[in-house]
Amino acid sequence: MSMSIHHAASEIHQKCFLREWSMENKSKWELLDMDCLVSIFEKVGMDDLLLSLPFVCKSWYRASLQPYCWKVLDIQHLQSMGILFTNRFVSTYRIKWFSSMGLVKLLVKLGHGSSVKVILPDEFAYEELVYISDKCPALKFLSLPAACILKDIADSIPSLVHKWRNLEHLHLDYIQLGFPLSKIVEEIGRHCKNFIGISVNAGIIDDEAVSAIVTWLPKLRTLDVRGTTFFGIMDMGFTLSKKNLLKILGGCKELDFLAVRECSQLKIDNEILKKASHIKNFKYEILDHSSDFGWGPNYDYDDYCDYWLEYYAEAM
C-alpha cells in the first residue's frame, strides 16, 4: 500500500519537528504539553514510535505509552523494513532474538485494546490473528495480505469474525483461488452490525462471493475493487463480471462509494451507469482510458483511506 504525497509530507514535517527539538531545545523537552506530544506521535512512523521517541526523555516516554498513539497498528510497515528493523528492535530492547508474536503482543498491549486499524504483514501466524481478535475489541479496519495466507489459516478466518463486532471495513491485498471470502462475508453479516465497506487490490470476486455480499451485506456503503502492480513490474488484474456488478448494484442499494478499476471481463456501459446513477461517488476506468468520473493513472489506495477516515471522523 503506497503512501500518498500529502501523508508523506506530513510525516516528514513531524519528523523534522522532532529532530529540531532534540537538537536545539534539550532543556525544553519536559515542557511540551502531553496532548501536543501525543498528537505529534500518532502521526510518525511506528518504527520511530517504538525505537526512538520513548528514549528521548521521560515526558516523551510517557507520551509514547498513551493508547491514542497506537490507534493504528501497521505491522506490514515494520515487516517491510526487514532486518534493519528486527536488528534494531533486538538491540534496543536488549532481547536475545526477534519474535513476531512478541512484537504483536507488545503493540496490542501499548494500544490497551483501543486500536481501531490493523494492517497485517505478508507473513503472519494464525496465533497472531487470534491474539489481535481477542485483544482488540475496538477493531474497525482490518487489512489482510490474502495472497500469502496459508490455506489452513485462511480457512480458519471465518471462525474469528464473531470477535470483530466493531469491524467497519475489510481490505484484502489479493483474493486467491480458494480464499473463503463468501464465508467471511456471511460471518460479517451475522456479527458486524457496523460494517460498511470492502476493498480489494487484485484477484477475483466470484459468483459465490457476490451472492454472499448481496445476501449478507445489503447495507454495504463502500466497495473498492481494482487491479494493482506488484514490485512495479507485475500487473495483477481484478476479475468482476458485468453480471455480478449489476447484481451488487441491485442488491446493495445503500452504496455511496463504488470504485472499479482494471477489472477484466468488465466494460462500463450505459446499463451499468443507469443502475449506478444513485451512487454519490462512482469511480471507474474503461480499458486504458480514465473516464470522466474516474482516476488518471496515478490513483492511490490512500484516496479511499482518506474517504474512510473522513467518514470515521464524522461518526465520532
From TrEMBL:
Domain F-box: 29-71
InterPro entries: F-box-like_dom_sf (IPR036047), F-box_dom (IPR001810), LRR_dom_sf (IPR032675)
Pfam family, one: F-box
A GO MF term: SCF ubiquitin ligase complex binding
PANTHER family registered for this protein in UniProt: F-BOX AND LEUCINE-RICH REPEAT PROTEIN 6, F-BOX DOMAIN CONTAINING PROTEIN, EXPRESSED
Protein name stated in the entry: F-box/LRR-repeat protein At3g48880-like
